[in-house]
Specification:
Chain lengths: 365, 504
């Protein structure tokens, strides 16, 4: 029998974000007191909107799904040292391509859903391909190009759903496409959870996108930590000099990671399009791509870390709505708190990382 | 007069007494060398002096007055300055700006340059540290950058100057210049602490020599009583053979051939100028030369894909010009990089990952096309670590946790253990202690005896002379003369290195 050894440093790393959360909650309570709310009422409001009922709690997880995919997309690029700030645009385009496949392709259900998923990934990868090619081929910095491509994507999508792809004549006044075919609509998994004893009410979207997220999370983890390409992705992200010296084909790896990031980004909008709305509009949850950057940062670019970070983000978002509804703390303040919390977590992460590094050095000395 | 006294300094890190009751003193007008193997405790002691570490016990006296040094700023204010191995300069700033940085004089917020310039000029004059004050630091060679570092601390009024392996990055001429400066500063009554691995230099310049081993002072020697074998013995605790034992070579077929290779710099100047050389299986070919005569470019042309202006590089008769690094490695080109700090290790990765790096994509480390066999990686790493005596708590320890010497050993172990056909060893013992140097020498000779072609590039002429079976002198991008080992002497090779004698 091999003894299972838990490295205490891994525990430190795991718990350091919690310290950030605690610190941020203290700040929140202080602000609450300043606007005349008692700490009790604030905590009660948060509790009420995030975990007082199984539906509320399930909503947190439901909201976390696209956040997780976004964090995953950003993190895979970060791992290779690529700053894909364009996840936002990539999921708008990926979502659109997926939606078109869902609207116009007459396919049986068993293959329709896989087809829309693949189309969404291809769409996202396609939108990442041009900045990727410019970076790899011409050395144009991806931060600049992806930001520009975000703007182009939004404008393009706006034009398309108002013009050529508009599904006018349907009931909504919003600019939108025709409805997704029934064969491509994402069903709900709520009854599975019910069978497991977790009664998730029907209005909560615990849909197929959860399965997609879990599969992608596992695949990315395997890629990064079990496969040769993942090793090379992490190596390139750590040091391009060392990677080149070791014969790793740096450009190829960065290109692959960039495209993969775009492909994962294409999946972010699927829950909104295929489960919640049933059609595509340019108003699908904007900002998710940028949340992904913070989530990847807090999750330290590891799939497991991104799981926790995305749930934390979803919790924060729901807590913010709770505060707005049940207390006099303005919604804007809850955004401030989110920012403060991210800041605390990042700082504490850094402190803990340095501490661990120093300790390890001493142990080896 | 005793300028500085460190008394009974003890510093314990978990599991190791880095400094174990060290006492050390420095007189005014003295160059005091601090020698010891990697990990002996020299750097720790100096970090304590410079306020980077707090000692667990012990006292520091400056001119017999006890002082507390909490941080480098304290140290500087007390007149203690340090020239680190890795320079702390702003590359895009001018020399002047770098020197005054942190000590700027200003009138109502407007930077005053006139007075500092005059002051610095007189410091330059007094210490033989001439530098163009208006040059940008990134444009000047390493030797001059080091002068800027020295000027920086002199400008801050340092009385005590600590040099951590200052000669590691210098050419022999630059070393001479540096030592001139050392002597001038000594004559002004300053105290100099000189950390070095190179015993010749220590014997050349030091007034006293303190040997540290395993965190303790073994002995402080006066220059008159110090000899190379004595210091070496005190350092490692047993007599070390600095003489290299090796059998006569039995060279076989040509493995590596560089043929009329010309490579241009970004400024279209030839950095390799129609250079030709061959290395056979079973021989060590040493490149002697003053640094900056094309050694780096030669290494690049063999280990990396480079676009030459003309000429070619052949491995067993096959042109390698179109091979990328991976192909080169797969076909048997091993490479111990010159700048191991920058190219050698993925620091956050485990030692095991680093030991297979470069072959990580091949069997037996990968099962099928992609799956990494971590059991195989770890067992291979454990064997390598044991065979090459890399000191580490385990193979899963991240590389950044290892001491500098052990990091270097890990790189050398990796490249040797891949069993390449050609081993390009660039400065393989730079910054390595005597024990490890001996080890590297043995390994290089072992590689040769096992039929590998070894190309050795080193700034240490003794190393080249004692290891190489043939020696090529590189000057301005070409091999201007080749020696057999038996006909090479330091004087003869030296003449060609400086370009005083040219032939081909």
């Amino acid at each position: 029998m091999r003894k299972i050894k838990i490295d205490k440093y891994h525990l430190y790393e795991l718990f350091s974000p919690l310290l950030g959360v605690v610190a941020a909650i203290i700040v929140l309570l202080l602000i609450g007191i300043a606007v005349g709310e008692s700490p009790g009422s604030i905590l009660k409001a948060i509790h009420r909107f995030t975990m007082s009922t199984s539906g509320r709690l399930a909503t947190v997880f439901s909201v976390a799904i696209p956040l997780f995919l976004s964090g995953l997309a950003v993190s895979i690029a970060f791992q290779a040292g690529v700053f894909n700030i364009g996840v936002e645009g990539q999921y708008f385009i990926g979502g659109l391509v997926g939606a078109l496949a869902g609207i116009y392709l007459p396919l049986p259900r068993v293959i329709h859903i896989p087809v829309v998923v693949i189309c969404a990934m291809l769409g996202g990868a396609l939108w990442a391909a041009i900045p990727a090619a410019l970076k790899i081929g011409k050395g144009v910095h991806e931060v600049i190009t992806t930001i520009m491509f975000n703007n182009i994507a939004l404008a393009l999508v706006n034009y398309l759903v108002n013009g050529p792809l508009s599904g006018r004549g349907e009931e909504s006044l919003e600019a939108q496409t025709f409805h997704i075919r029934d064969t491509a609509v994402f069903g709900k998994l709520n009854h599975w959870f019910r069978a497991l004893g977790w009664n998730i009410p029907n209005h909560v979207f615990m849909d197929y996108s959860l399965i997609i997220a879990i599969i992608m999370g596992i695949l990315v983890w395997i890629l990064l930590f079990r496969l040769r390409y993942g090793f090379e992705i992490r190596a390139v992200g750590t040091s391009i000099d060392v990677s080149e010296y070791a014969g790793i084909r740096v450009k190829r790896i960065q290109l692959a990671a960039f495209l993969l990031s775009g492909a994962l980004a294409g999946l972010i909008g699927l829950q909104e399009i295929f489960a919640i709305r049933g059609f595509y509009t340019y108003e699908i949850a904007p900002g998710l791509g940028f949340d992904g950057i913070a989530i990847a940062l807090i999750g330290r670019n590891s799939p497991l870390g991104v799981v926790f970070a995305s749930i934390l983000f979803a919790f924060l978002r729901q807590a913010g709505y709770g505060l707005q509804l049940y207390t006099s703390v303005p919604l804007a303040i809850t955004f401030v708190i989110s920012g403060v919390m991210i800041l605390f977590i990042v700082v504490i992460n850094e402190v803990v990382t340095r501490y661990i590094r120093a300790q390890r050095k001493k142990e080896a000395a | 007069m005793t300028l500085l006294r460190m008394e009974e300094i003890t510093k314990v890190f978990p599991g190791v007494r880095a400094n174990d009751g060290i006492s050390f003193d420095l007189r005014a007008g003295e160059i005091h060398a601090l020698v010891g193997e990697n990990g002996a405790g020299k750097t720790t002691l100096m970090k304590i002096l410079y306020g980077l570490y707090k000692p667990d016990s012990g006292n520091i006296y400056l001119k017999d007055r006890p002082i507390a040094i909490k941080n480098p700023r304290d140290a500087i204010n007390q007149g203690i300055g340090m020239v680190h191995q890795h320079f702390m300069l702003v590359p895009v700033f001018s020399v002047l700006e770098n020197i005054i940085l942190g000590r700027e004089t200003h009138t109502a917020g407007v930077l005053q340059l006139q007075k500092p310039t005059e002051e610095i000029r007189s410091i330059m004059q007094a210490n033989g540290l001439m530098v163009d004050l208006n040059a940008r630091v990134e444009d000047i060679p390493v030797g001059l950058q080091q002068r800027v570092e020295i000027l920086k601390i002199l400008y801050r009024g340092a009385e005590i100057l600590v040099f951590d392996e200052p000669t590691a990055v210098l050419t022999p001429q630059e070393v001479d210049e540096l030592f001139k400066t050392f002597r001038m500063m000594r004559d002004q009554g300053k105290g100099i602490i000189f950390i070095s691995h190179k015993l010749d230099e220590v014997l050349d310049i030091a007034d006293r020599i303190t040997v540290i081993r395993r965190g303790r002072v073994i002995r402080t020697l006066e220059r008159s009583e110090a000899t190379k074998p004595l210091i070496a013995e005190l350092m490692v605790g047993k007599p070390v053979l600095l003489k290299v034992d090796k059998e006569p070579p039995s060279p076989k077929q040509v493995i590596l051939e560089v043929k009329n290779l010309t490579v241009l710099s970004v400024h279209d100047q030839p950095v390799l100028d129609n250079i030709s050389l061959t290395v056979r299986a079973g021989e060590i070919y040493g490149i002697a030369g003053v640094e900056g005569n094309g050694q780096t470019e030669l290494i690049q042309a063999i280990a990396y894909k480079t676009k030459p202006e003309s000429g070619t590089v052949l491995l067993e008769g096959q042109s390698i010009l179109n091979w990328d690094v991976r192909t080169r490695r797969e076909r048997g080109i091993g490479h111990i990089p010159e700048d191991r700090h920058r190219y050698g290790l993925l620091l956050p990765f485990s030692l095991a990952d680093n030991i297979v790096l470069g072959r990580h994509h091949l069997g037996p480390f990968v099962k099928g096309p992609q799956w990494i066999d971590s059991t195989k990686v770890r067992s291979y790493a454990r064997e390598t670590i044991a065979a090459y005596d890399v000191r580490t708590p385990s193979e899963m320890t991240p590389a950044h946790a290892l001491s500098g010497g052990n990091q270097q050993k890990a790189i050398i172990a990796r490249e040797m253990n891949f069993e390449p056909k050609v081993l390009v060893a660039a400065q393989p013992t730079r910054g390595v202690d005597i024990g490890a140097t001996e080890f590297v020498y043995k390994q290089l000779i072992l590689a040769r005896d096992r039929g590998k072609a070894v190309l050795l590039i080193s700034a240490d002429l003794d190393e080249i002379l004692s290891l190489s079976d043939r020696i090529g002198v590189i000057f301005k991008g070409a091999i201007i003369h080749e020696f057999k080992q038996e006909e090479a002497t330091k004087e003869k090779v030296g003449l060609y290195m400086t370009g005083e004698r040219e032939s081909a």
